[in-house]
Amino acid sequence: MKLHWSPRSPFVRKVMIVLHETGQLENVERVRTVVALATPPGDDILNDNPLGKIPALVLDDGSCLFDSRVICEYLDTQHSGPRLLPAEGAERITHLRWQAFGDGFTDILLLFRFEYLRDHPDPALLEGFERKTRASLKALEGEAGELTATPFGLGHISIACTLGQLDLRFAQSNWRLAAPRLADWYAGVSRRPSLAVTAAKDDAPPAAKDSTSLINFMQKS
Question: Is the whole-model pTM more than 0.70?
């Protein structure tokens, strides 16, 4: 299998965590693929995923799976260990809901940062993204106890990747002070080898306009 991959993509990180957790890392060839909202995608990704997005997993028969949710669920059927997504019942719905929450929250953060870094960002859009970010963090803080009590699975992976994006792209947000129970859960789950080895570091040179301090949760908690 071939995975279109980038080390700082939170959605690619979801797939990488699943590969580590299920012992399938050696079955996948990683192909570095650069995509960005403001840059036209190259033929390398468009030939496999016409949406021009990563992750995209090319199977041995030449077919391609996207997005991260489909890829993760597929990979979870390709191993003999405990499933990361329960097969049925309330636990399955819980993990699917957390996955949808984490992925949606991540989308908001990516669009928030992209809008802010434009030459002339729209104040109304920025306010909307900020309000959604604060509301999402507050909601996750309320679910920290359930996150801790529920056996690790795909929903946890998605939420953890979202919080990793907060650390990477909004490094001065102080989100841990605003959500201490969530922070405690994240500190514990981040010690899992699959999360530790996939944690992204922003090694890019400093930009003229820095988004790390775009939002400070302690200003309007």
Answer: yes
